[in-house]
Write a structure and sequence with these properties.
Blueprint (H helix, E strand, L loop, with lengths): L1 E4 L8 E4 L4 E4 L9 E2 L6 E4 L7 E3 L17 E4 L5 H21 L5 E4 L11 E7 L4 E9 L2 E6 L11 E6 L4 E4 L5 E4 L5 E8 L8 H13 L10 E3 L4 E2 L5 H13 L6 E5 L6 H11 L5 E5 L2 H10 L6 E5 H9 L18 H8 L5 H7 L5 H10 L36 H7 L3 H11 L3 H4 L4 E5 L7 H7 L6 E5 L37 E3 L2 E2 L4 H11 L4 E2 L8 E4 L10 E4 L2 H11 L6 E3 L1 H12 L7 H11 L3 H10 L1 E2 L1 H4 L6 E4 H4 L4 E6 L1 H12 L7 H9 L3 E7 L9 H7 L1 H9 L10
Parallel strand pairs: 7-15, 8-9, 9-12, 10-16, 18-22, 18-23, 19-20, 19-21, 21-22, 24-25, 26-32, 27-30, 27-31, 28-29, 28-30, 31-32
Antiparallel strand pairs: 1-7, 2-3, 4-5, 5-6, 10-11, 11-15, 12-13, 13-15, 14-15, 14-17
Helix pairs in contact: 1-2, 6-11, 7-8, 9-11, 11-13, 16-17, 16-18, 21-22, 21-24, 23-24
Length: about 750
């Protein structure tokens, strides 16, 4: 039998102390201070409940900090009508067992659960009657090699001082793994309040006594009351703060076991040690051939360095696999001479429209953004599309052709058909491999495929390509760090102003039942984890020591002028900050040479529409353009050199994804981009929200948000003056899908 009740977690673990503008935890609160909500910056106060937490002084309907912690209705197990009789039978049986153990000279002390268990000695085992509680078997998962179960038994007294055994409804005795109840969400959406237990092995001090007790119980009248465990076959999500560490260990242990499912997806927080976990798993699978698929060459190079001692492992990008399957020369080992790796409008028009003047084709013949539109059609072949009047002119082979029929973006039309036939772009390679299933033979060489940073390889086509593998596919990443969705969008700004192109992306095909969550982060300290959960709803747990607490502060200036990494959203902000800070300190720029080249190119842009082009125009007006170009090139630094931690540096979110640094500052433009996305009526994804999440999770010791929260102003005034602060409450609106929470 079950009943449903509400278990509330509508609490905030952190707030802002206006004096110093720093984030503080409820566990380190100094009473009597004025406090502000970390999201809406309205007044909050400490509650008297244990554990301590914060709540709004007045109802803040526009702030979702409370709702991020809401736990849905929770299902509890209830004993049936025969529980009193069963309890008496159970007590008699266990006392017989304990007496027998004492008679045999057993050194183990047992205590039958009652209200006095808090007085037990540390060496004692407390035995709890859970024979009437519902039991769930966590099928396919284990903890230290032992099977795991969820028991819906309500326990009033448990303690770390002693160990607890639960006699379950299937007649087996198991050890308790969690001190308090854990709320878990199962695949049907139900949330259960359970205790996590595991089987005993032969090395357990109680093993032989317990086995004897199980036989006594089986031969007693209690045999008729035994109930088998209900199987839970899909991964659970931990909704409560308690239990995250234990379930994290269970789910990581699953990762190290050689997979048997067709696809497994591991959703891990920032700093979860994903690369280390992959290395450890590959070592365990030493007799298996492993293919690790990564997003780009940068990921490939760094992971190959990590995996150089694992001779059973190959690291490839998805594009490298497609090249091997489609390249016509040298057995797939070299590029074709006519391959267009750059794939921009100018090279596209030069190749396919030689009778056109390039500028004329761009301006009058539908050539503007043509390379991206063609690439999008090849990347999302199953998505419907509509081409605007302006881009329908792309079918005009010469300037004298009629555009009466126009280009409809069908795969048999020119120039799309020619691109596919000649396989001249990365997108055409992927399209051919998708259409003709050309990766099947390549994947047959391997026993398992592991996908690193899987959130960047989740488009419909990418999933179809990966699932051509007949062997198991294991994907590892973080949905909240999906920041490359711009690859799947085409700006409508160059379309006909009356009827724009409609080029939707194929929907991501990921089943929640295949997702397995990790919770521990080895990068972020406890305060940072609590703050990010208050801000975003992302459930994490710090694996760092309780005394390794970092610092999070709002300040318009850097708290540390040396050895700080400033993260920006745009290259324009990187350039502006580099120019400004170079006046007072030596500053380095991640990818400075590349940004320098981009600035030079932007300075030649005749349209001057992009932000970088407009910045170049201003620098030329100030007669500092050449100096800025040279300064950026001279300030160039690689991530490998930056990892020594001895520099003040600047970089963008996309450059620094996967990177970590002791002291980090967040530029205001990261917040501004997320605000703009949230307020956009045409919002189609959460890329900017995810960029902000990535930026806020790069630090190991301190994080500075480069804007001010003045305690002399009302929260509303602060919100109006600082748009970045005003945006924070709603930027992190929880995704409707539980995958992204």
């Amino acid at each position: 039998m079950r009943v449903t009740g509400s278990l509330s977690h509508s609490t905030m673990q952190t707030c802002i102390d206006p004096v110093g503008q720093r984030v503080i935890s409820a566990s380190h609160l100094v009473l009597g201070k004025q406090l502000l909500c970390v999201r809406c910056h309205k007044a909050v106060h400490i509650t008297g409940q244990i554990p301590l937490h914060f709540s709004h002084v007045e109802t803040a309907g526009d702030c979702q900090a409370d709702s991020l912690h809401d736990t849905p209705n929770v299902t509890h197990g209830v004993a049936d009508g025969s529980s009193d009789v069963l309890s008496e039978q159970w007590n008699v049986a266990w006392r017989k067992m304990i007496d027998g153990a004492v008679h045999r000279g057993s050194m183990v002390q047992y205590h039958i659960h009652d209200d006095a268990v808090h007085e037990l000695e540390e060496s004692c085992f407390c035995v709890v009657n859970a024979t009437s509680a519902i039991l769930f078997a966590y099928t396919g998962f284990s903890l230290e090699g032992k099977s795991v179960f969820f028991c819906q038994k309500s326990l009033v007294h448990t303690s770390k001082r002693y160990r607890t055994l639960l006699h379950c409804c299937d007649g087996r005795v198991r050890e308790l793994c969690t001190e308090s109840a854990v709320c878990v969400r199962i695949s049907d959406g139900s949330v259960l309040s359970v205790h996590i237990v595991r089987d005993l092995d032969r090395a357990h001090p109680c093993y032989h006594d317990v086995k004897g007790m199980e036989q006594i119980w089986a031969s007693d009248e209690g045999e008729t009351t035994r109930v088998d465990a209900v199987s839970i076959r899909h991964a659970v999500q931990v909704m409560s703060q308690n239990g995250r560490d234990v379930v994290d260990r269970i789910h990581r242990e699953k990762f190290t076991c050689f997979p048997v499912d067709k696809i497994s997806i591991y959703n891990a927080p920032p700093g979860a040690g994903k690369t280390t976990a992959i290395k450890d798993a590959v070592k365990r699978w030493k007799y298996k051939k492993v293919l690790v698929v990564v997003y780009n060459k940068s990921n490939q190079q760094s992971l190959m360095e990590e995996m150089k001692e694992n001779f059973n492992c190959s690291v490839k990008t998805l594009d490298a696999l497609c090249m091997a399957a489609t390249t016509k020369k040298f057995g797939g080992e070299a590029e074709d001479d006519d391959f267009d790796g750059d794939d921009n409008d100018r090279t596209f028009i030069k190749r396919h429209f030689p009778k056109w003047n390039i500028k004329d084709k761009i301006q009058y013949g539908g050539g503007m953004m043509s390379s991206k539109i063609v690439a999008h059609r090849l990347t999302h072949p199953k998505a419907p599309c509509t081409i605007c009047k302006k881009h329908r002119r792309l079918s005009m082979v010469t300037s004298g052709d009629s555009d009466k029929h126009g280009w409809d973006a069908s795969f048999t039309s020119f120039p799309l058909h020619t691109v596919i036939k000649n396989i001249t772009t990365f997108a055409s390679r992927r399209y051919i491999c998708d259409r003709d299933r050309k990766l099947v033979n390549i994947f047959q060489k391997y026993d398992v495929v592991v996908v690193d940073e899987m959130q960047d390889l989740l488009s419909g086509q990418e999933m179809r390509l990966l699932l051509q593998a007949e062997c198991p596919v294991v994907m590892v990443g973080d949905f909240n760090q999906t920041i490359h969705d711009f690859r799947h969008t085409v700006s409508p700004n160059t379309c006909d102003h009356k009827s724009r192109c409609d080029l939707p992306a194929e929907p991501m095909q990921v089943s929640a039942s295949t997702v397995i969550e990790w919770y521990n982060t080895y990068r972020l300290d406890r305060l940072s984890v609590q703050w990010l959960e208050d801000m975003t709803g992302k459930r994490m747990q710090s694996a760092r020591g309780p005394h390794e607490e970092g610092c999070i502060a709002w300040s318009p200036v850097l708290l540390r002028h040396e050895h700080t990494l400033i993260i920006c959203r745009k290259n324009e902000s990187v350039i502006t900050e580099a120019i400004h800070r170079a006046l007072s300190a030596k500053v380095r720029v991640v990818g400075g040479s590349r940004i320098s080249e981009m600035l030079q190119t932007a300075g030649k842009d005749p349209n001057k529409k992009s932000g970088l082009s407009q910045l170049a125009l201003r620098l030329k007006g100030d007669q500092t353009f050449s100096d800025a170009v040279q300064m950026l090139a001279d300030a160039d630094i690689s991530l490998k050199e930056l990892s020594t931690g001895k520099f003040m540096a600047l970089g963008t979110v996309h450059q620094l994804k996967g990177f970590e640094y002791d002291h980090v500052a967040i530029h205001a433009d990261v917040f501004e981009a997320a605000t703009k996305e949230r307020q956009s009526p045409e919002k189609t994804d959460c890329t900017e929200r995810n960029c902000l999440f990535v930026a806020l999770s790069r630090h190991r010791k301190s994080l500075t948000v480069l804007c001010d929260i003045s305690c002399a102003q009302t929260p509303t005034e602060v919100a109006n003056r600082y748009s970045t602060s005003a945006a924070a409450p709603d930027i992190f609106k929880v995704h409707s899908s539980a995958l992204f929470v």
